[in-house]
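User: Show me a protein chain along with its predicted structure.
Assistant: Here is one chain, sequence first, then structure tokens.
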Amino acid sequence: MIKVSGFLTRRPDLTHEQFSEYWKDKHAPLVMSLDSFASSVRRYIQQRPLNNVPGSVPILPYDGVAELWFDNLPSALATFADQDYASIVAKDEENFLDRTKTVIYRPRTCPSEELDPAGTSNSMNVRLTEAEIHAVSKACRTAVSSHR
């Protein structure tokens, strides 16, 4: 399994509440109604900033984080290359995202035995090469730019 995270920034004309409501109530159901996403996305998580965080805790300058989990890199690439992504998902993102400040991130992780030498964890991490990480980013950028 691999995870692709999108660090999302709202359009400047939207409040955080308007952004969150659209993302949760309109965008997520639309995305997950598409066969290309529903068949390849194994897990979809929306994270929003917490309220009332102590002032000493730094907060990322994003309005939300989307996590998309796929079986493998080819599955992720195929999903972002699918025509539905460019024609439906990217188009809908214009309703609430500022793409100039939104970034996609695929973290490089250590093999689980390095993190858990005793083997007590049930998680498994996958190490991607730089080329594979760039391929995911390129697929996302290509899909978005082909929509414009």
